[in-house]
Batch of 2 targets.
Target 1
Amino acid sequence: MPTLHIVQGDITKLAVDAIVNAANSSLLGGGGVDGAIHRASGPELVFACRMLNGCKTGEAKLTKGFRLPATYIIHAVGPVWRGGAHGEADLLASCYRRSLEIADAHTLQRIAFPNISTGIYGYPKDQAAEVAIAAVSRFLEKPTSIQEVTFVCFDAENRTIYEQILQSQNQ
Ligand code: ADP
């Protein structure tokens, strides 16, 4: 059975098969976790991203990790929060599902996600965590190469939210 983990910290430090980036649709870098990943991965990353011609919201694309300890980066574009009635939950779930599909297609085993859309894009953290955990859990019900999914929470608030949801599911 694949396992779910929660850690608090900087996703760029993780030596997993793939880390997911909360990218914007240009894929050319931005603030938040995207900026941290570009800084840690090095200038090769933006060259690789230029070849990808951007990415739609809810979709994901793969590059190498370059100077990161992670082998690959899966760049997923989360929705901007616009009140919740603009398909945000489906688009956010799609980010997690598409990232896992790409990881599975490359027979990767260990993948780590940031809390997509909960920074600059303004998605309420508790609702985003519910969507993330539900989408990942549903994906892992089917046979897959993925053995371990880590939710990397940058802030204590997100960490507590994730811990509470997972604890309530295990009861
Ligand atoms: P978005 O535009 O999708 O909201 P952000 O990068 O602004 O993306 O934020 C997404 C989440 O990533 C936020 O919860 C933010 O606190 C977190 N974050 C920022 N830097 C890092 C990092 N180095 N490692 C992991 N998570 C990070």
Target 2
Amino acid sequence: MNLILFGPPGVGKGTQGSRLSTEFNVAHLAMGDILRAAVRDATAAGLQARQYMDAGQLVPDAVVVAMIEERILAGNGQDFLLDGFPRNVAQAEALDAMLAKNGLSIGRIVFMDAPEESLLKRLCGRLICRACGFGFHRQYSPPLKAGCCDRCGGELYQRDDDREDVIANRLEVYNEQTAPLLEFYQHRNGFLKIDAGGEMEAVYAALKEAVSN
Ligand code: AP5
């Protein structure tokens, strides 16, 4: 079953999406990770995306739609979980058209919600492993050894867009451009909303139930 996880920055899409995709054996297609890899590798799309990401703005639709289509088709029929795509109504319409063209569909659309105060705390404390990409949090899920990934020993860093001023922009962009997706999706078959403001395990349990039923 193909899935969409959507919700505000810091709600836990990446953390929970990664765990869910491993447990359900689906490809985790995280738009932010795909874009950061393109920036790191200085591809043409990455060079175009960088200025938008640094400012907390959305990368142009044409760039992200082409990138996600390529990743979906490269999966050769493996089920996928979309995290961070679509992020506005135009992207959702492009996704519908792309899926229809390729005989694919989405089985579950899960909207994850949490209070803005929790989002800020989560984003400000986030740390990511430079080597394997695993996520930690200074307070909620700290590494055993400061600055060092528990899984692979890689160096932990803070994302450039997890600065307070950029976070404020990202939340504004979310409210203006991504929140309208709720109206777009909420009457579709397979739509579910979960409370993602609680502790990590409780959120995962709610998500798993939403996906399993
Ligand atoms: P992206 O990387 O997708 O960022 P985002 O949507 O802002 O989401 P985040 O990755 O910040 O948060 P998350 O929900 O994954 O939270 P996480 O699990 O890490 O996008 C970055 C940029 O790329 C965008 O600003 C834009 O420029 C561009 N972009 C991406 N997609 C695009 C698109 N479709 N169109 C155009 N541009 C696009 O959790 C956060 C922290 O909280 C972690 O430290 C985690 O450990 C902790 N945490 C998570 N859950 C809990 C919990 N329940 N309790 C306590 N701590 C928790």
